[in-house]
Amino acid sequence: MRAAIWPPHLPTSKSVGVEPVFDIQVLPTLPEIEQIVLSLKKHRASGPDCVTADLLQVAPVAASRQLYPILFKSTLMVQEPVEFRGGNLICLAKRAGAALQCKDFRSILLASVPAKIQHRHLRSRLLPLLGQHGHPTQAGAKAGISVEPISLLAKSFQAAHHKRRLPWAITFYDLQAAFYRVVRETLVPSQQDDKAFRALLHRVGIPSAALEELAEQLRRVAALPDMGASPHLVSLIQDLFHATWFRMDFGDTLTYTSRGTRPGDPAADILFALSFAAFIRHTEMVLREQDLAAFPLPDASLHPWASSDSGSTVGFPAWADDFAHLQNALEFESLQRRVQLSTQIVQERATAIGMKLTYAPDKTAALLPPGHDWTQHGAATDDLDGSVYVPVLDRLTQESHSLAIIQAYKHLGSVLTSTGDPRPDLAHKKSKALGVVRSLGRKLFGNSAIPLDTRRLLLRSLAVSRFVHSSAALLLTAALHQRTWDQAYVQIWRALTPTTKGDKPAHGYAVLRLAKASAPPLALARARALLLQKLTQHGPSVLRTFLYEHWIACPQGAWLSQLQDDVKLIALYVPSVQDFLSTHEPVHDLLESLRVDPTWWPRQTRAADKAFQKALDDWAKKRQAPASELPLPLDEPSGPIHPDVSGLTSHDG
After folding, report:
1. Which structural domain range is residue 173 located in?
2. Using one digit for the tens of pLDDT, what is the confidence trace for 213-234?
3. Which stretches of 437-574 are assigned E, i.e. beta strand?
């Protein structure tokens, strides 16, 4: 009976597969694969297939030709090899002390290198979508935007409001295991039936109150199709998320995964960024509907360099999964309530998509203006430690959270204080740099058996460069702050000339000459110039607006006002700068030059550095002491221009 019925049925049966998709722009090309192979980082661990980047880079052309058919077919057929879908998972302690505890570990996936090449190709196709639909203040996956602009945006927002005596608040958020908790269906349509999909949402921990709403929303629209991704690209991401697995190191059991992005995968950050962009967009919409968005500052006449789109907002300045909400109010009495309601919206939205916020003074907390008793405006006091917090109720889970009100917070490598004092941030940056120096000082940097060029290069790479470039976002509002930074800068370079008890310390000029380093103010001026170049070329434009508005409100204590001192300093070494920048309004002229040529000012700082090195050589020749004898330090480390060398300023540590 069945044999008689089944064959005639086959010609009329319909395919149950998906519709074919094709987009030629998504397909990889041989030159692209070769460029990716050449850009792979060397000396990295291999995946289960034991193929390393070093092996492929021995013959990159031949390796690319061997890999290209596999990568091309997997893209064309929308079907990755099983080996590309997982790898060995190892756990590394974040700190040495955590190795003996079951916490503070970071999971690292050792995946196949050919799989990483395929996923880096997909990443390049997803980046334009993030540029079009991501918020301008969302960084981490975009090229050209470092952590300094995001940190500076929070500082300038605080300083601009503080100078105008307006209420402000910065709420910092910490997502627990953010990359692992991403619901993949927020990016691409679900390929599971309702029963399996609801079971997944239940395992994620989404409460029943939000289950129906989220399920309906995910069925209706996902982030990638909504952003205009081609069906072929959407299908590739669906396939990338399908049947992912990992195996614990030295284990045989395969673990199937159905949520999150793979740690260490080249596409992990862009996929999280796209999901996070949709989260920010929806949250901002709800805040605007409930009149909780930040009020704009009073209108000011903006320079064209500082202008931004009329619809641009502060948003949630973010670097990867570290983000903050900049809030203000018309009066201090309503500020705490606005912070409470805004945090509640963010908490409920995070719960609805399966993410979890961690509340603690160093995790999710609020930085509020000093000098106010917030318990008079609705804040509560902890009975155990007496700390002040804002109660936040998650109406989806009926859980109550405590949003701590803090006086300082470490944000993206910087320390923000409620008073705007830069000294804690200065001390933090100095401590991190000197920590590297102390651990490797005499063994490496001060070891005369190692060539000086090698020691100089390593010290610059491991300690000085990070210290200088991270300081570009500092607001040094007093001469004492600049002096403190100068001394820390020279102290780091002193690792090249270690001393024993009873030895005379090297003169600051001698240290800088030995290190072939810039003068401290020149180094800081060059770091600011490079940051200005990035702000001009890559934005975010809203940061340029806040920097300019702060400068208009406070001409002597703003970040842009530091450029006036930079111009005066550079003019000592490069007098031709005075032909282009006026003495009355050098900042306006400098901003105008950035619009014409963003690289002009960094070139002038580089020329000033060369002139300073020449002045150091002239100073050394005029010294009366023998070359082998280290001169005594000056009585006044930060004195006026050296009398013997025109244009040379003393910056001894």
Report:
1. 147-179+274-296+313-415
2. 666 655 555 788 888 899 999 9
3. none
